[in-house]
TrEMBL record:
Gene: lcmt1
Gene Ontology MF terms in the entry: protein C-terminal leucine carboxyl O-methyltransferase activity
Assigned GO CC terms: cytosol
Keywords: Methyltransferase, S-adenosyl-L-methionine, Transferase
GO annotation (BP), single: methylation
EC number: 2.1.1.233
Official protein name in the record: Leucine carboxyl methyltransferase 1
Superkingdom of the organism of origin: Eukaryota
Family: Belongs to the methyltransferase superfamily. LCMT family.
InterPro entries: LCMT1 (IPR016651), Ppm1/Ppm2/Tcmp (IPR007213), SAM-dependent_MTases_sf (IPR029063)
Function per UniProt: Methylates the carboxyl group of the C-terminal leucine residue of protein phosphatase 2A catalytic subunits to form alpha-leucine ester residues.
Reactions listed under catalytic activity: [phosphatase 2A protein]-C-terminal L-leucine + S-adenosyl-L-methionine = [phosphatase 2A protein]-C-terminal L-leucine methyl ester + S-adenosyl-L-homocysteine
């Protein structure tokens, strides 16, 4: 059906993200020792503005994530929604800042591929075995569960099933829990993403949500971005042309979150540690600075908190 084709195209987007991350790390924008096990080839060259855009995305998300781990002293959970082939778990293990448990959710088909890679690549499976206390590591085709890391195949638009599976893998709603969504909500309708965000707010009293996605699409540049996605037959249910930083915040404020911030990536980029920004800007010459600015103005990070335990989560920011 049309909707299967659209979902299939959405699933392909996780390859795009990892291919771009693989390329940028091969140029030295940031270090990721594990993406090579999910994307074998470095692949064709990406434009410098694309690499800088990914740099801002990864650094921006990591900065907030690392701050959350610090504030909770790792006595917390992380749930990466639409994680795709993301490698954050392995970075946190290497940096010795693992949460109590790290969950990932994606479509069953993506999860099966990820598990296959983990099973067949010792640098990926070793850290799981090392952090697991018994011999009972669950590793079949469709799910993976260990003491500290778990991958769940589920559709984020089906909340009852999502809830069942998170429970089955021992999520603890009382622990501070960070939800990440990096380029994911845009593939759901505004009602579906609001329902998800609302369910989290009512289920987890101490929580943070970090969302990265497109914003300010209602101009010429935005229309070109949308056409590019549509050319790949993506289901863009969530591309709301009028989505602004204010409406990004509204999604959280109207569904039970206490405090919300949203910044476009142009602003985030200017607030990242500037010595490192200067370093990456020397990696590749960028002729058209305006192109990068336009790109950065069309993405944003929005983060929301609920802080029943009074951990000071609302202080997290750039
Ligand atoms: N978050 C990863 C990253 O930034 O590298 C992957 C981003 S990729 C653009 C979008 C991911 O969201 C894909 O892996 C896709 O399968 C997943 N996704 C989209 N809609 C979903 C849904 N309804 N249920 C589960 N996963 C979904």
């Amino acid at each position: 059906t049309d909707s299967d084709t659209a979902d299939e195209a959405v699933r392909a987007t996780c390859d795009d993200a990892s291919i771009c991350k693989r390329f940028a790390t091969s140029k030295g924008y940031w270090t990721d020792l594990y993406v090579q096990y999910f994307v074998r080839q470095i692949g064709e060259r990406k434009a410098p503005e694309i690499n800088r855009g990914y740099y801002g995305r990864v650094k921006g998300m990591n900065l907030l994530l690392d701050d959350f781990l610090k504030k909770t002293q790792c006595d917390c959970q992380v749930v990466n929604l639409g994680a795709g082939l993301d490698t954050t778990f392995w970075r946190l293990k290497d940096e010795n800042v693992m949460p109590k448990k790290f969950f990932e959710v994606d479509f069953p088909m993506i999860v099966a591929r990820k598990i296959h890679n983990i099973k067949t690549k010792p640098p990926l499976s070793k850290p799981l075995i090392e952090t697991h206390s018994t011999d009972s590591l669950l590793l079949d085709g469709h799910s993976l569960d260990s003491d500290r890391y778990c991958i769940i195949g589920a559709d984020l638009r089906d909340i009852p099933t999502l809830e069942d599976k998170l429970k089955k893998f021992q999520i603890n709603p009382e622990l501070p829990t960070l939800f990440l969504s990096e380029c994911v909500l845009v593939y759901m309708s505004p009602e579906q993403s609001s329902r998800l965000v609302h369910w989290i707010a009512e289920t987890f009293p101490t929580a943070m949500f970090i969302n990265y996605e497109q914003v300010n699409m209602n101009d010429r540049f935005g229309h070109i971005m949308i056409e590019n996605l549509q050319r790949r037959q993506c289901n863009l249910a969530g591309v709301d042309l009028c989505q602004s930083l204010d409406s990004q915040k509204e999604r959280f404020l109207s569904s039970g979150w206490e405090s919300v911030n949203a910044l476009d990536m142009m602003t985030v980029y200017s607030m990242l540690p500037q010595e490192d920004v200067a370093r990456i800007e020397r990696l590749e010459f960028l002729d058209e600075k305006e192109l990068l600015q336009q790109l950065l103005q069309h993405y944003c990070i929005c983060w929301a908190v609920k802080d029943k335990l009074n951990l000071g989560l609302s202080q997290i920011g750039f």
